Amino acid sequence: MFKQLVSPLLVFFSLMTSAVALGQETIRIAVDNWLPYQDEKAVYLGSIHRVITEAFDHEGIKVEYGFHPWARSLALAEEGIWDAAGISQRSEEKERKFYFSEPVMSAEKVFFHLNNNNFDWKVFSDLKQQRIGTTIGYSYGDEFDQFISTGVLDIISSTRNQQSFRMLLKGRIDLFLLEKRAGEYLLSSKFSDQKKRIVFHPKPVQTTQYHLIFSRHSSKAKYYLSAFNRGLKWLQDQGLVEKCLAEGLAGEYQI
Fold first, then answer.
1. 203: which DSSP letter?
2. Which helix (H) or strand (E) holds 142?
3. Domain identity same for 119 and 55
4. Per residue of the chain (255 residues), what is the pLDDT tens digit?
5. Same structural domain, 161 and 195
6. Contact 211, 104 (CB under 8 A)
7. Is position 255 within any domain?
8. Do 133 and 222 lie in a common domain?
9. What global pTM score does this model have?
10. The total number of structural domains that make up the chain
């Protein structure tokens, strides 16, 4: 049934082109690469983008994606230059700037570290002697974000997850905080020759849900929000969201 609902890439974009010719409405979403969920080089641009595109398509809306570093995508959406950004977890700061869709996926954020680093932690204060890699624009939950803001942690931020893994391998940071499945996938696909050197701590810093977020400056934000939620529910009822995510994690969308 799913293969009948979603055409291969060539046919998919052909249908999208035809839709434009017919005057189909378009929402513009600012995004970043977050493999395997979001990948400008993958079929469907990654599993999450496949979900987003199909949810809007069910409601007769075309999607245009613009890839930028995540902090830039957030700024473009907040200013209303783009209609939405995705995908994002909730935070107090973002709640003031965006409307949040129903959850698209859930995830755990964990510390990755070298396997020869006998690392353990129970509370945030245990991290004071560690050099911690983070990604600019990412949130790690209000509690941990507030702890970072106290300045007691040694935080080294980058714009790209691959860059942080390189720093970890070179010993420039001790820990890298990232969503578990995305980290495992990135290690397998981009660092296969050294992936055995990196493990993750089982205790999550945060277990959270991710959403598509809509700019409060967009006059059509609530319209797009309602449409997306309807389309997403339809996909979830068919079991297609988890199917897309599983296929992405299995590498089925890589070219």
1. S
2. helix 142-149
3. no
4. 444 444 444 444 444 444 444 557 999 999 999 989 999 999 999 999 999 999 999 999 999 999 999 999 999 999 999 999 999 999 888 999 999 999 999 999 999 999 999 999 999 999 999 999 999 988 898 899 999 999 999 999 999 999 999 999 999 999 999 999 999 999 998 999 999 999 999 999 999 999 999 999 888 999 999 999 999 999 999 999 999 999 998 889 988
5. yes
6. yes
7. no
8. no
9. 0.77
10. 2
